[in-house]
Amino acid sequence: MEENKLDIRAFLDADERKDLLRLLTAGSVDDGKSTLIGRLLFDSKKLYEDQLQALERDSVRVGNAGAGEIDYALLLDGLKAEREEGITIDVAYRYFSTNQRKFIIADTPGHEQYTRNMITGGSTANLAIILVDARAGVITQTRRHTFLVSLLGIKHIVLAVNKMDLVGFSKDVFDKIRDEYLALTTQLGIEDVTCFPISAKLGDNVVELSPNTPWYEGTTLLDYLETVPIHRDRNMQDFRYPVQYVLRPNLDFRGFCGKIASGVIRQGDEVVALPSMKHSHVKGIHTYDGELTEAFCPQSVTLTLEDEIDISRGEMLVRPDNLPHIGRYFETMLVWMDEEPMDRSKQFFLKHNTNTTRATIDSLEYRIDVNTMEHLEGRDFRLNEIGCVHITTAKTLFFDSYRDNRATGAFILIDPITNNTSAVGMIVRPLEGDEANTADLPALDLPRLGITPDHYEAIERAVKDLERQGLEVKIVK
């Protein structure tokens, strides 16, 4: 009995140590996204008996499959409207694991009017599976979804050429689609693309290699998903620690709680607090399970410092030799998520990590036709539209470009009246000089007021208090 307990404990410990792969599926309507995920779950023996019974029962009742066949898409298309129309509308999530890895799959809708749903599903994904109907090849929807995947910074792409059974498992058809798609991803700067000839309905090359494609020399889709390296996808170079909460359980402890957005931190490392630029060293790294000698993203920890530094929520700890961009003006790609059209006269709330501030959209550089990737001039954004804008914030932000650091390069805009999420943004670059809209802010010209550098520290503390109240003061030294 004791030996069985040890075996179970060892199994649970090993299961807990598995890494997690987040992936999304995208493609045109009826390309077989939901069917593919259902086949992955079914053939990998990851369904419970009651799920199998319900699947067989629903396949007969809904009638999308042939007589005696199982409709694997029903495992994901849970909404009534989806089952009635045979399409995916909302983002459906499935969780499963194999002996090598855990998975969270986001099945995203294929319709153009549900672009925002795809952006939501792909915002945390490591990998994207783009499905293509072997009969249709690379179409406008394929190009649109690939552009959205590149916009989201997803580093690994799988091209799944589905319904190969309907083209006689032709190698020529597969090669033509693969070459056309690789030309597209090269244009978009996507480096890691792997192509698979599959039949989601019949299971060819999904979990088991198919005898119908003797010309195919690669692995199965599941084998690839289990082994694709994702540990390098996180930014482990740039230490960014947005402070979420100041912990004071007693007079002898003062720690700064938060989630490490990127990078690694160790006891004794020198850090600098933004925006005060005060330096200190890490005294301790505390967690619920005890103290650590080092921590890395995306761990949530509490840091204590050697020196007493005034730090509050929204500020950030970084390394002194590796600073993020510090400013209020930046260029960003924006995805409009609100039913209400963009109103550039409105002041939005901008939430960036643990920092929230007022923000305005200064200028609209261009909109993107997601089907042709053409840059369009003119009107403000409407629902699901994407483009490039310049933004000014009331408070100083500490950010990186989204391409370099997804954790500190992303934000959301919130409508101050309805509290709806109006847009999501991916920062391209900071703006300076003539590019930035230097809003009319009150200025303190210190030399003209007769204030010497000896007083600057006191003035900066006062300005910091004003910033915490949502005000912005510009100091001229």
Residue stretches low in confidence (pLDDT < 50, at least 5 long) are 78-89, 438-450
CATH class membership of the largest domain: Alpha Beta
**CATH superfamily descriptor of the largest domain:** P-loop containing nucleotide triphosphate hydrolases
Give the overall silhouette. Answer: globular
For the sheet with most strands, the description reads: 8 strands, antiparallel
CATH topology of the largest domain: Rossmann fold
Total of helices: 9
Count of individual domains: 4
On the 0-100 scale, what is the average pLDDT?
A: 82
Question: What structural class do helix, strand and pairing data support?
Answer: alpha+beta
How helix-rich are the residues, as a percent range?
10-25%
Query: Which radius of gyration do the C-alpha atoms yield?
Result: 26 Å
The rounded distance between the terminal residues' Cα atoms is: 75 Å
CATH architecture term of the largest domain? 3-Layer(aba) Sandwich
Strand content: 25-35%
Number of strands: 25
